[in-house]
Amino acid sequence: MKGLLLKDWYLTTKYLRALILISLLFAAMSVFSPENGFFRIYPAVMFAMIPVSLYSYDDREKWTVYVQAFPVSRAQYVTEKYLFGAICIAALVTLLTVLYLVTGADGIDGAVTLSLLLGLASASLMLPILFRFGAEKGRIAYLIFIGVICGSGAALSFSASSAGDITTVPSPNLGLCAGAIVLYALSWRLSVALYQKREL
Amino acid sequence: MNALELKDLRKDYRDFTLGPLDLTLPSGAILGLIGENGAGKTTTIKLILDMISRDGGAVRLLGRDNRESFPLGKEDVGVVLDEVSFSECLTAAEVGKIMRGVFRNWDAAAYESYLKRFALPEKKRFKEFSLGMKKKLGIAVALSHRAKLLLLDEPTGGLDPVVRDEVVDLFSEFTRDESHAVLISSHIVSDLEKLCDYIAFLHKGRLMLCEEKDRLYEAYGVVRCAREDFATIDPAAVLGKRETPYGVEALLRREDAPRGMDVGRVDIEELFVLMAKGGDRQ
Question: Does the pLDDT at position B25 exceed 60?
């Protein structure tokens, strides 16, 4: 597991640097312009997509096949992706918390809840599709998903009436956060089951 | 103890069936798996590693059922697949660090010495490696975690003759320890002839033969004769033949050759080619 996490860390720093930097910039901007829904949604969804992108690289570079030559079970492979995804979302949430605390901006609870919720839910929906159908077919679902999320985020941010919804939605709602974590856990179990059946 | 035992191993695809395969590799020995493209060599190795699901039979690795012993059992197995597939952005040094977190018995010093021995740059990206360098990196990884069994799928493909020779010596060195064993598949029959104690022929998914190499030389031979002389040989005794402008070359069991007929030595490549042709005729 340690080796897989390290491998994904290398890939993230080499392949996904630009995506992370842009996401972090948007995350910072969301603190200063909380009315802009796009800035609030984009970083969470992009951070959730890190394990999705990493799986796509693994699939393209045939690491998904090669890794089976090593003492790594398919369940461990899937688990590592979920763990890496959870670390990414946790890092974003931590960063947002620090930004809100440092700047003294309002709405820290809502921002944290929204990021956690969106991040975990996005990954929960995307990863099982990927583990079942592979990166190539999963890419279509990925593009549709990103299009819908970013499109609705942008639409909401330009709509004055809706912008209010975005900033006020999930105030510190522990139930929602717990639900997202449960969804993530269920998604992990489903992905393990699906990936074990797949012929690579 | 046997390092590897395959019993009635089978895999069914829509247009191809592998097996049933029965094959045993004793510890301390090297078995060469020979077969044309698509014969099922890679599929066999993937089945042994449980990378693909089998449709029948059993695989025992180092005395234990592979499904029960994996994934931990893979600690003892060094693998080089036909395509070495590390992420393109990684360097050999990073691959070493990753493998230290993958294998409990990772030997960083051995890995570094293999990188030096193969003249592999530590800081160059895998993407910039030639095919031969990729193979060498795969071999370095396979040999650096104190494996007891090596499963090698075309490990010498893409290597120049000098390095190939060195790699073949490395595998040979590996089995000096009697608890070690090697299963190697290759198109380069001369490497296998030099290296192996046992030879297995796979043809269109069927195991045509699995014998000690020296036993093959003793048991089989080639008759080169005119067509009229060939006609006197019992067709049932002919395992394969090739017609040339000068006559016929026929593969026979030495014991089945007509008395007085000169039976020449057969090398492994010729044995395989003639046997495959015989198999196609049946």
Answer: yes
Write the pLDDT tens digit of every residue in A98-113. 988 888 888 888 888 8
How far apart CA A177 and CA A159 sit, in angstroms, is 26
Q: Where in chain B is the domain with CATH 3.40.50.300?
A: 2-204
Q: Which residues pair with B225 in a beta bridge?
A: B248
Residues of chain B in contact with residue A72, where contact means CB-CB under 8 angstroms, are 71, 74, 102
The answer to whether B89 faces chain A, any CB pair under 8 Å, is: yes
**Topology at the third CATH level for domain B2-204:** Rossmann fold (3.40.50)
CA-to-CA separations, B218 to A32, B3, B172, B201, B252, in angstroms, rounded: 85, 26, 23, 17, 11
Q: What is the least distance, in Å, from the CA of B112 to any CA of chain A?
A: 18
Query: Residue A163: which pLDDT band, with cuts at 50, 70 and 90?
Result: very low
Q: Would the pLDDT of B103 be above 80?
A: yes
CB contact under 8 A, A11 and B89: yes
Q: What is the dihedral of CA B50, B55, B61, B64, to 10 degrees?
A: 110
Q: Does position A59 have pLDDT exceeding 60, yes or no?
A: yes
